[in-house]
TrEMBL record:
Keywords of the record: Amino-acid biosynthesis, Methionine biosynthesis, NADP, Oxidoreductase, Threonine biosynthesis
Gene3D superfamilies: 3.30.70.260, Dihydrodipicolinate Reductase, domain 2, NAD(P)-binding Rossmann-like Domain
EC number of the protein: 1.1.1.3
Pathway info: Amino-acid biosynthesis; L-methionine biosynthesis via de novo pathway; L-homoserine from L-aspartate: step 3/3; Amino-acid biosynthesis; L-threonine biosynthesis; L-threonine from L-aspartate: step 3/5
Taxonomic source organism: Devosia enhydra
A single MF term (Gene Ontology): NADP binding
Name of the protein: Homoserine dehydrogenase
Lineage: Bacteria, Pseudomonadati, Pseudomonadota, Alphaproteobacteria, Hyphomicrobiales
Cited InterPro entries: ACT-like_dom_sf, ACT_dom, Asp/hSer_DH_NAD-bd, HDH_cat, HDH_CS, NAD(P)-bd_dom_sf
Family label: Belongs to the homoserine dehydrogenase family.
GO process annotations (BP): methionine biosynthetic process; threonine biosynthetic process
Span of domain ACT: 415-499
NADP in keyword set: yes
Segments passing through the bilayer: none
Length: 502
């Protein structure tokens, strides 16, 4: 390696290990704020300049660089205020661990007067998150505002463009702009941490970026939304309806006043899109996901699934197939004996199926102030220690374009619940349509005891019929159901739930 190459490496390592921005290095060590930028663009400083800078770096290392890492936090809600509280309360412990202090020097939120239970006496207040992101008074920017555009995007971009490290918990932002932001970060040499964006307190991003670096992942699946898991768990345990469970989840603060983003599956889809990119080295593709929520799941489905040895979970699943990558979010029948079936309540779990370590299941709290803030903090510690990894696991120019495997080609088992008219020949007609399509049935069950209401597509004069198929193609199942509907022996919409082989 030439002298100049080794000099460049020393400078970059110094900046990374302290979480400094290039400008700070330029000012404090080189006496020129643009020094690092010029160096990155190919400028070759003279030998005397290099020696002077190397000596200054060495002096700082020897005298012990105890300058604190100055953190700016934009967003002081559930997660942001908790993070500031932890940094203030555990400051001494963290300083001993790191060998330097982590200090919140600036914050931004909308309301200056709201009591957030944190001491803001020595903290500079910004009304504008972008101004905070660009401020010279911070070394690292934390975005905890939320939203895929607006101030969250503008502030994260501004910090990265300056070469300033960023930590965010914002899945919507990452799902929509993750690749573009990773590019900006790589160009400016900044780090971008987003552990908290997927499954709150579970360290799945670190596991994928660092722990499983060389493993080839075949499938990733998991429970990524605590609200949905809470509702499905209570429906299963207590025999109450979706609507009742949702009301309780809202009263307990597990569900938003407008719960549609969670219960319709979009929150899970954002997280899945980020995971799929990290697992398969492809671009993030949130609009290519099949998304079905849990609003149509009835007590009849929960009961029959249980009787057949299954539980119903809202899963996000991404897997390789010969046609490309399949990304889907939908209620799923999982065998009761599977590990994921036992993950209940607001907990999340993510399973990674790899060639080397087979299946890895990470389970834990997927949301809430403390678990999420703890993941944000783990990114901050990594950056303070100088850990450098491309944001999406591989350099962004190595990401392959996303190739969607068509859902029609999906192969698996299906649970089909039909409201068959209570007339002679109805069941025989249904079975015969299945046979014509070559669909092999594992069970056919009539459950007159299960009352499916008129709103749920049933009602007087109908019988609940459940068909469980062996593995077949989605296209074949859908065409067959359409034919059955055309025969006039059923009423209302059929219920179709995919079964996942685990
Ligand atoms: N909560 C969780 O359990 C959880 C879990 C995983 C990830 N996340 C992610 O973490 C992020 C934060 O979530 P949260 O639950 O903490 O949200 P939150 O409680 O709604 O807090 C949002 C904060 O952003 C501030 N804010 C909003 N617009 C602003 C603007 N234009 N300028 C300055 N500040 C602004 C708000 O200020 P005011 O307080 O003054 O209104 C508030 O402090 C989101 O991306 C979320 O998806 C949250």
């Amino acid at each position: 390696m030439s002298d100049i190459q080794s000099f460049r490496q020393s400078v970059e390592a110094f900046i990374a290990s302290r979480g400094w921005t290039p400008t700070r290095f330029g000012r404090a060590i080189a006496g020129d704020p643009l020094f690092v930028f010029d160096l990155r663009e190919g400028r070759e400083p003279r030998s005397e300049t290099r020696q002077r800078i190397l000596r200054a770096m060495q002096d700082m290392a020897e005298t012990g660089d105890t300058a604190p890492l100055r953190i700016g936090v934009a967003g002081l809600g559930n997660v942001g205020a908790t993070l500031v509280r932890i940094l203030q309360k555990d400051g001494d412990i963290l300083a001993r661990k790191l060998g330097r202090r982590l200090v919140v020097t600036a914050v931004a939120a909308r309301s200056r007067s709201r009591d957030r239970g944190i001491d803001t006496a020595d903290i500079t207040w910004f009304d504008d998150p972008v101004a905070l992101a660009k401020s010279d008074g911070i070394d690292l920017f934390v975005e905890l505002i939320g939203g895929e555009d607006g101030p969250a995007l503008a502030s994260v971009k501004a910090a990265l463009e300056l070469g300033r490290p960023v930590v965010t918990a914002n899945k919507a932002l990452l799902a929509r702009h993750g690749v573009a932001l990773a590019r900006v970060a790589e160009e400016s040499g900044a780090q971008l941490g987003f552990e908290a964006a997927v499954a709150g307190g579970i360290p799945v991003i670190k596991t994928l970026r660092e722990g499983l670096g060389s493993a080839r992942i075949a499938r990733v699946y998991g429970i990524m939304n605590g609200t949905c898991n809470y509702i499905l768990t209570r429906m299963g345990n207590e025999g109450i309806s979706f609507a009742e469970c949702l009301k309780d989840a809202q009263a307990l603060g597990y569900a938003e006043a407008d719960p549609s983003f969670d219960v319709e599956g979009y929150d899970t889809a954002h997280k899945l899109a980020i995971l799929a990119s990290l697992c398969f080295g492809c671009e993030i593709a949130p609009d290519e996901i099949l998304v079905e929520g849990i609003t149509g799941i009835t007590q009849a489905d929960i009961k029959v699934a249980a009787d057949l040895g299954y539980r119903i979970k809202l899963l996000g699943i991404a897997q390789r197939s010969p046609e490309g990558i399949e990304q889907r979010v939908h209620p799923t029948l999982v065998p009761r004996s599977s590990a994921i079936a036992g993950v209940d309540g607001v907990l999340n779990a993510i399973a990674l199926e790899t060639d080397h370590v087979h299946e890895l299941l990470l389970a834990g709290p997927g949301a809430g102030g403390p678990p999420t803030a703890s993941s944000v903090l783990s990114d901050i510690l990594d950056i303070a220690r100088g850990t450098r990894v491309p944001p999406l696991g591989v350099p962004s120019h190595e990401l392959t374009p996303y190739r969607r495997a068509p859902m029609r080609a999906h192969e698996g088992g299906y649970y089909i619940r039909l409201n068959a008219k209570d007339v002679p020949g109805a069941l025989a007609a249904i079975a015969s349509r299945m046979g014509e399509s070559g669909i092999s049935l594992e069970s056919v069950i009539q459950r007159p005891d299960l009352q499916v209401t008129a709103e749920e597509g049933g009602g007087a004069g109908t019988r609940t019929v459940i068909l469980l198929t062996h593995s077949t193609f989605e296209a074949v199942v859908r065409e067959t159901i359409a034919r059955i509907a055309g025969d006039g022996f059923t009423v209302g919409e059929p219920q179709l739930i995919r079964i996942e082989a685990l």
